[in-house]
Amino acid sequence: MTTEQPHADALDDFNELIRHEQEFAGRRSGREIDPDARRTRRRRRLWVTAVVLVLMLAGGGGYSGWALTAPLAEPVAATQVPEVAAPPAADIALPPEGASAIAISGAADYLGTEDGSIWATTGTEEPRPMASITKLITALVVLDAYPLADATDPGPTLTFDRADHALYDKYYVMGATIAAMPIGSSMSLHDALATMLIPSACNYAEAVAGWAFGSQGAFLRAARDWLAVNGLTQTTIVEPTGIDPRNTSTPGDMIALGRIAAAHPAVAEIAATRGLSLPGPGWMNNTNSLLGQSGITGLKTGTLDPGGSNLLYTARLDVGIGAPLDIVGVLLGASSRAAVNHSVPTLLESIAGGFTEVTVARRGQQVGSFSTPWGGAARIVLGEEASLLVWSDTPILTTMQTSTPTTWEDGEVIGSATWTAGPHTVTVPVEFDGAITPPTSWWRLTNPGELG
């Protein structure tokens, strides 16, 4: 915009007024002034001010015309990036005893590990007794030889003879878990495996292994081949039930076994069953009493005395990132079943608790302001509320861009603010809030140095 130049005489008078005021201030600070002299000088200042104002206001093309129409400087913006502190670090409650490992899929971008890789361990990687987790291997070896079409396929039929019935007494004397097996009774392979896995019946494990391979020796050869093919090189099996402490494995091999078992439809379905009633064995409760707690979906318990209490487990944790996390974990050598039943849910809940929904923006939150020399002011605010799901103490990074308003109207979007934590980013608009009040005519006339 073009404006008229100030009238020279008006400016000269204005400057003379300023000079007189400065001289008067200097004299006043240097010595005591007589009251009559003070009144005389006050009248003189008022007379000079009136003259200057007349000169300033005289003629539309003079100083007043320029001052009242001269362009103003843009309001000055001051912004502050709305930084957000990271939440506290997650307190992961790893089991305090035995040896454990846990692998997590579905949160690689948060946890910084590959999907399915072992995320955390405790204890050593030395082989420990598997106990009845052995029965998972027995089931998978048998199903390798006699595959089921799906989780509901009954498969071939087994008929139990006197030798099979004798296994009931054999394992009863040993103090092992057993289930009824009447002479001449029949059962599908699916149901026989369920009786082996759900209540952990040792007599069924040996009977099914013998039925599938003709002898225990043939079963063991097939089992060792199966372990080798599946890369479970740190796992040893000498019989199908787990009652022998020489059936050993490591936490790493157990995680691999858990993945295989969880991927087998029939085994996964059986392992997730809390209870089952079948002719012959009757009602059977799953030895894994944690099913349904803390997202736990399987797989197999195992206890030996001495040797400790074990659990190979799967879980699905909904932590708010869309799809649930798929987890495979193991605890070997805990002091008791009660210790297992405390440690595993506590670990899973601590993982879920490590994901925190952090509010990063509130609608109307001030992030800056505009100000003018004549006292006008308006706010710069966030236009929306937003939050981010953050893992543990992952840093939350903030950026903000703003520009000069074009309309200077309340609610005008003048930029954006963005927050990033781990794999996710959220952006909200930045808005002009309020109104810049124009300066008064008096301010324009008395502040020529602020005009363009």
Describe this structure in words.
By secondary structure, the chain is α+β, with helices and mostly antiparallel strands. It has three domains: 8-70; 76-85 and 359-433, Peptidoglycan synthesis regulatory factor (PBP3), Domain 2; 99-353, Beta-lactamase (3-Layer(aba) Sandwich). Helices cover 35% and strands 25% of the residues. It is built from 13 helices and 19 strands. A six-stranded antiparallel β-sheet has the order 1-14-15-19-18-17, with no helix packed on it. A five-stranded antiparallel β-sheet has the order 3-2-12-11-10, with helices on both faces. A hairpin with a 3-residue loop joins strand 10 and strand 11.
CATH architecture of the largest domain: 3-Layer(aba) Sandwich
Sheet with the most strands: spatial strand order: 1-14-15-19-18-17
- Assign the CATH topology of the largest domain: Beta-lactamase
CATH superfamily of the largest domain: DD-peptidase/beta-lactamase superfamily
Q: Class by helix and strand content?
A: alpha+beta
CATH C-level of the largest domain: Alpha Beta
Residue fraction in strands: 25-35%
Mean pLDDT: 89
Oligomer state equals: single chain
Number of domains: 3
Work out the number of β strands. 19
Backbone CA Rg? 42 Å
What spatial form do the alpha-carbon principal axes imply?
rod-shaped
Contiguous low-pLDDT stretches (5 residues minimum) are 1-14
Distance between the terminal alpha carbons, to the nearest Å? 10 Å
